[in-house]
Design a protein that fits this description.
Strand order of the largest sheet: 1-2-3-4-8-5
Number of strands: 8
Structural class: alpha+beta
CATH superfamily: Gcn5-related N-acetyltransferase (GNAT)
CATH class: Alpha Beta
Distance between the termini: 29 Å
Largest sheet: 6 strands, mixed
CATH architecture: 3-Layer(aba) Sandwich
Radius of gyration: 14 Å
CATH topology: Aminopeptidase
Number of domains: 1
Low-confidence stretches: none
Strand content: 35-45%
Number of helices: 5
Shape: globular
C-alpha cells in the first residue's frame, strides 16, 4: 500500500481500484520494490491505474520494466487495448509511457481538482488535468 500511495495520494481511490483490479509486484532480495495495478474498464480494455517504484530504486529502469510487464500481461490475458492516465505535471511518467508505445488520446480537464481534496504539485507544476494515453495490443 505504501508504494501505491506514492503514485496516488488518495487512500479511498486506491482502495477502490485495488479491490476491482489485479495487483502485481516486483521484488528484489525479498523486498517489494515496485507495484502496478491493472483494472478492466470495458470489454477487451484494461487500464494501468497505478504504477510505483520504491524511491531508493528510482533511476534503475524498474518503472520501464513494470510498464512493459503490464503490457505483456494485458496481452496474455486477451486484452486488445491498454490505457493509462497520468497528471499533467508528471513529466517523467509522460515520457516513459510514450517510450513504451502509448499515445495521447485525451485530457480530463481538472480531474485532480475535482477528485482530490488537497492540491498536488510535481516538478513545480500543479497537477490539475489527467492526460489519457492508450496502446493497441
Amino acid at each position: 500500500m505504501y508504494l501505491l500511495l506514492l503514485a496516488d495520494p488518495s487512500r479511498h481511490i486506491v482502495d477502490d481500484y485495488v479491490k476491482r483490479g489485479e495487483c502485481f509486484i516486483a521484488e528484489s532480495d525479498s523486498k517489494v520494490i515496485g507495484v502496478y495495478v491493472l483494472l478492466p474498464t470495458r470489454p477487451e480494455t484494461v487500464e494501468l491505474v497505478n504504477i510505483a517504484v520504491a524511491e531508493e530504486q528510482h533511476g534503475r529502469g524498474i518503472g520501464k520494466l513494470l510498464v512493459r510487464d503490464a503490457i505483456e500481461t494485458a496481452k496474455t490475458k486477451g486484452y486488445k487495448t491498454i490505457e493509462v492516465g497520468t497528471g499533467n505535471s508528471s513529466i517523467g511518467q509522460l515520457a516513459l509511457y510514450q517510450k513504451c508505445g502509448f499515445r495521447m488520446i485525451g485530457v480530463d480537464i481538472d480531474f485532480f481538482i475535482k477528485h482530490y481534496p488537497e492540491e498536488i504539485f510535481e516538478n513545480g507544476i500543479q497537477c490539475r488535468d489527467m492526460i489519457r494515453l492508450s496502446q493497441n495490443l
